Amino acid sequence: MKFRFFIWISWIALIILIVVQYYYISETFKTKQQQFDSEFSSLAKLGLYEFENRYFDFVQDSIFDLLDDYAYFAMYDVGFVQDSIKKDSIRNVIMENFSLHLNISNAREKYLESYFSEAGEPSNFITTYRVRRLRLLAFANEVPVYEDTANDLPKAFREGYLLNSYTVERNNYRMKYEYYIAFPEKSERITQEMTLSIILSVATLVIVFGVFFLTLRNLLIQKRLSELKSDFINNMTHELKTPLSTISVASSTLARSDGQLERDRIIELSGIIKKQNRHLTRMIDRILDISIWEKDQVKIDRQPTPIRQFILDILQAFNSAHPELSMDIRMKEILPGLKMELDQVHMTTVLNNLLSNVVRYGGSPPHARIDVSASDQGITIHVADNGAGISEEERRQVFDKFFRGKDARKNAVKGLGLGLFYVKQIIEAHGGTVTLDGNSRKGAVFIIQIPY
């Protein structure tokens, strides 16, 4: 419960950190944007003010005169048309002509380019004249042509700046228009200025996430090891209690006999005590072997070993002790003269451990298939059983120390969870590998590969 609570708190903290970082970056971007708007709008307005006080735009003035002549004839076009739809169409044409002619003059834009360059600022901007109101005049009459009440600017100028508003009146029209400037690369420039902040924020998130996942991984490993340790202690307690209880009963019987037991009964009880004592010794030795192995104190004593006879002797001896196990032995290209450098004691234990698993987890009756083959690289040994197999979830842990599968715990199969761990350590000490065949649909198949 505490572990899950810690995970949830950690995830919530990470989400809060992401939100805070995002808020920090977005607020910094907004602040930079406001600074940019304030700086460049002021600079542009100052440059436009200097232009309008120093120079007269003759091109624009001649355009206004040209538009005055155009408005004279346009007034008649609007006046003679009675259909409202056609009249609206004419108004749109008039408006388009005024906007087109108004944006012909670029004197202000040229001046602002040089003004920005002298100030050491980028001159990659765009400008436009925007008509706000247009009316045609004829004697005492005014004909409305356009009225911008929605303030619907083109997309490129929605984040631009209004530099100035103007009103022009000629004989045949009255017009109000505005002059806008925009910087298309404003966002890119601000982003470049914030590159270091963004990199630091992302790096902080990456480091925090990395530390979190490493911590989570270590916690999961520790949790799993704790569970395995608990299982081991429980199994060890159970395994030790059985022989100890048997020894206790047998010794108590001998103690209470007062010399009245028959000789055969005394021999029987002594044999039971001896057998259970040997069993306890083997269990303790196994645990000590694993402990010594982890400290790198076990040495592999390699000796020239005739593979065929060595394996057959192990299988025969094991089968004699476990007659209920049937075996199907196949040796491909294993000639009697083939020898390898092996530690015979440890390798005997390896095969006995695998065969013991067949007896414990195989079918009823248990059946083992042992395939031994040779190649230029070394020998390969397959040990397969006829059991229910190992689930995909447990395949990744079968070689872990103290690990025992759910079926073994459920069916109360005796064991300490050290056998396959021991197998893996011994095979790897010989420079080989041991794997569990993931393609096997029935039973478990362990594959041992040992190089020459």
General description of the model:
The chain is an alpha+beta fold and 452 residues long. It folds into three domains: 192 residues, no CATH class; 98 residues, Signal transduction histidine kinase, dimerisation/phosphotransfer (DHp) domain (Helix Hairpins), CATH 1.10.287; 149 residues, Histidine kinase-like ATPase, C-terminal domain (Heat Shock Protein 90, 2-Layer Sandwich), CATH 3.30.565.10. It contains twelve helices and eleven strands. The strands form three sheets. Strands 6-8-9-11-10 form a five-stranded mixed beta sheet. The protein has a four-stranded antiparallel beta sheet with strand order 2-1-4-3. A hairpin with a 3-residue loop joins β3 and β4. α1 runs antiparallel to α6, α2 packs antiparallel against α3 and α9 runs antiparallel to α12. The longest helix is centred in the middle third of the chain and has 62 residues. The chain is rod-shaped and about 145 Å long. It starts with a helix and ends with a strand.
